[in-house]
Amino acid sequence: MTPERNQRIRQVLDRRQLDLTVCMERVHKAHNIAAVLRSCDAVGIHKMHAVWDEKPRMRRGTAKGSQNWVSVESHESIQDAVSCLKQQGMQILVTNLSDKAVDFRDIDYTRPTAIILGQEKDGITQDAIAMADHEIVIPMMGMVQSLNVSVAAALILYEAQHQRDKAGLYQHPKLDQTEYQRILFEGGYPNLVQLCQRKQLPYPYVDEDGQIQADDTWWQQMQLTPAGLAKLEAEQVARADKNDIVDLEL
User: CA-to-CA distance for 63 and 66, rounded, in angstroms?
Assistant: First the structure.
């Protein structure tokens, strides 16, 4: 990993917002999901949530790689999703055109916040509305009554980003070190990640300079062929079994 990439990844991770998220309720068009993912990454969201009728397949390149940086947690129902989000202390917002809805810019997004976005044709469900803390709307001055779901998401998220940036919430890293190191290694050493996964090896520590810190045994295992690794593991098991026998005899 180059010093420039190491610095870039660290800057991104240091600004990740764990208490700001989006929940997509039955949004099914792949290009819309990809666009929302890109907006989530752009404003520093760490995890997105979703309730699927059927999980769609995104074409390669539509999310511009943002799916590698924003994880997606799936839920069986909107009730499960909202329960999960409320347990994290988040206020629940739903986009809905109603008499109760307030201008999306009137919300305090510096609070832990989850924004539920509805399905393209029918919008948000009544179940989601019933569980929400606030209904929000994007003012419309033309003939149409709504924006594309991905456009609406971008507008709301950038209002949240503006408020959070002004409040200094991007200046204090929030990720724990285990998650930080996982993403740093996966983003900086994708080829080694594949080897680790194939060989079932733990990820190594990546230091401040972006260099891998690992012992000789880890590097030896990384360089072995699958057959060689299996042989080494068998030898280690045999040695451990022999030591157990010696201990029992003593």
Answer: 6
**CATH number for the domain formed by residue range(s) 17-166:** 3.40.1280.10
Parse the chain into domains and list their residue ranges. 17-166, 177-249
- Residues 139 and 99: their CA atoms lie apart, in Å, by 13
Distance CA 27, CA 52 (A): 7
The CA-atom distances, in angstroms, between 227 and each of 43, 191, 194, 199, 222 are 45, 19, 17, 10, 12
Radius of gyration of the chain (CA): 23
pLDDT along the chain (250 residues), means of 10: 94 96 91 93 95 65 64 94 96 91 96 91 88 93 83 96 98 94 94 89 95 92 75 71 55
Helices (H), 78-214: 78-87, 126-131, 149-166, 177-188, 190-199
At residue 89, the 3 state secondary structure works out as: coil
